[in-house]
Amino acid sequence: MAPKRPKGAGAFPQPVEHPVPTPPDPSALYAALDLGTNSCRMLIAQPKGSQFHVVDSFSKSVQLGQGLEQTGKLSRASMSRTINAMRVCRQKLQRHNVTNMRLVATEACRRARNSQHFINQVRRETGLALEIIQPEEEARLAVISCAPLVSTKSEQLLVVDIGGGSTELVWIDLTNVPPRERPRAIMRLHTGFRQDAGPFAAAKVVDWISVPLGVATLRDQFADVEDDSARFALMSWFFEENLEKFAPSGTEQARDGFQIIGTSGTVTTVAASHLGLRRYDRTKVDGLRMTSDQIDAVIHGYLKLGEEGRRADPRIGKDRQALIMSGAAILQTLMRLWPTDRLSVADRGLREGLLYQQMSIDGVLEDVPY
Q1: Where are the alpha helices (H) located in the chain, listed in sequence order?
Q2: For residues 280 and 186, what is the distance between their CA atoms, to the nearest angstrom?
Q3: 40 with 59: CB under 8 angstroms?
Q4: Are 334 and 121 contacting, i.e. CB atoms less than 8 angstroms apart?
Q5: I want to staple 327 with a disulfide (CB 3.0 to 4.6 A). Which of 66, 130, 179, 215 is the partner?
Q6: Cα angle for residues 179, 289, 229 (degrees, 5° grid)
Q7: How many CA atoms lie within 13 Å of 112's alpha carbon, on the beta-carbon side?
Q8: Residue pair 106/133 in contact by the 8 Å Cβ criterion
Q9: Phi then psi for 207, rounded to 5 degrees?
Q10: pTM of the predicted model, to two decimals?
Q11: Which of 73, 170, 53 is nearest to 118 (CA)?
Q12: Torsions phi, psi of 8, nearest 5?
């Protein structure tokens, strides 16, 4: 006897509905593009509370400044690579219908004799309008990008942005700002380093400097030195010489209440090496705190590896191997001058600062604690 068929056995199954995420309103999207000496990077994001949510991103090594030290001009090959990368950025901007954007170029375009020709060519071939920003604005944008990482215990703060063509240092005194207000006081610097306190306690910028030496330009200065350790020592000494005009360079800083925030590929690579990551993980690196001793240990490890060993190291990779030791020389110089138990690693920088700036001006960020 055949088994009795269960009731409803022939019915069509009920579909399970998976909600499709609603695409963000294009008018709520902001884009920031940072064209540096070595890389072209872009973020598209929407405001979320006091911060933002990244919708799309792009990053590519274009080596725009290749050969700039020798010729004083951007080469045809480097301009061609960069324009190809910017075509990809344009496609992303069009796909998301972004209208709020700032697209900036930094040290390579500031120095090149043919930078205006390049800017015109970018506009003609991609429709994108690049603007060359000055060192003070570059430094200011790097500072505000790091506001969420500022400790409420920090009374003296040094923000360091190691770029491809330049390095920006900003020293900030927070002693007159209530502890819980310190991250917000840093964010308010988007309007300028000279603050009218108004109803708020203001962060005081003691001094800032833009040194025309980054990972690419410093490496090029000593490309003819074959010995790895000798080249590293010369780069570190030369970078320290260029800090003579930076006011806090001659003063000894107590470790208590002192924080350094480092933002660059060099700092994040050193952090990944310290953690022993096999694959880069931003969630583990961004906000990590390291001591001077831990950083020294990683750098000494790089020197022991040698060029081939660094190229084979998955945390460094083939592309960054050529730049990591010049970046490490800059970082070690800073640690020697201002040893600290609290260097905060920032996987953020100019792009994030551009986004915070635009959103702050438009008043779309909530004024809540970080």
Answers
A1: 68-71, 76-95, 107-111, 115-126, 135-145, 182-187, 215-221, 228-241, 265-275, 282-285, 292-312, 317-337, 350-362
A2: 28
A3: yes
A4: no
A5: 215
A6: 135
A7: 27
A8: yes
A9: -165, 160
A10: 0.85
A11: 73
A12: 85, 10
